[in-house]
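> call design_seq(struct)
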């Protein structure tokens, strides 16, 4: 179902968000899945918890994949394979050290700054599970392209790599599509162990470090102990115990 050579691609000059476009056009697209929607500009790009995702024209990757997923028990691993896909895409472009911050943020490890974010929305459409994986990558921004309040938190690939040249958005989308769907096919083959091992490898920079974890019940401090085989966060406490969390985020 995720055959890359039949990927239907829609390229927009502007939209509010590529995730919203997919949800609003499911009726026209349901027989063309899988589909990639990418836009040169987003006026209402967003991340987790309805946070705004700054999407200046032509500066980044603003893309969403839409597809049906039959194995619903694997939904918890979708954020991980999306993060893995982003890291492995960017590794093809330069040697910048990147890490995965559970569940789906990609960081430039040297500056501890966010370079990419992922927003997954799963919707039941006509009894089928329509999965939308939105990916925003800061690609060619300079510091002036970020609002002042984000300049110590966000970075672009161009900035991190010290590149004088821009990275072609179309090329990055092409590589991202290839890599993401390779991992999605592995998910459909239930290769969970390989996915978790890879995700933990990219999250290694956080291992055994103190973290603040925000979850629906509030905020708690603990020790990052990796990613559980189910896709959840393993959080250690001061008593040596470990708990598993499936919602929330590392501060």
């Amino acid at each position: 179902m995720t055959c890359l050579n039949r990927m239907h691609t829609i390229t927009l000059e502007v939209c509010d968000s590529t995730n919203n476009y997919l949800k609003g056009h499911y009726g026209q697209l349901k027989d063309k899945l899988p589909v990639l929607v990418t836009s040169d500009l987003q006026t209402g790009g967003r991340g987790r918890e309805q946070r705004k995702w700054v999407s200046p024209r032509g500066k980044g990757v603003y893309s969403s994949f839409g597809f049906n997923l039959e194995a619903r028990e694997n939904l918890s691993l979708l954020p991980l394979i999306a993060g893995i896909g982003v890291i492995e895409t960017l590794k093809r472009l330069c040697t910048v050290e990147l890490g995965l911050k559970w569940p789906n943020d990609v960081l430039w490890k040297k500056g501890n700054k966010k370079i990419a974010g992922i927003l997954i929305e799963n919707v039941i459409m006509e009894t089928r599970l329509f999965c939308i994986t939105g990916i925003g990558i800061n690609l060619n921004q300079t510091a002036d392209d970020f609002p002042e309040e984000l300049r110590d938190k966000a970075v672009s690939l161009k900035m991190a790599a010290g590149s004088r040249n821009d990275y072609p958005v179309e090329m990055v989308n092409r590589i991202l599509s290839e890599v993401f769907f390779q991992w999605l096919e592995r998910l459909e083959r239930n290769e969970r162990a390989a996915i978790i091992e890879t995700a933990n490898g990219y999250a290694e920079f956080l291992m055994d470090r103190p973290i603040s974890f925000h979850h629906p019940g509030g905020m708690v401090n603990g020790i990052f102990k990796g990613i559980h085989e189910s896709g959840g966060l393993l959080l250690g406490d001061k008593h040596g115990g470990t708990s598993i969390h499936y919602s929330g985020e590392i501060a």
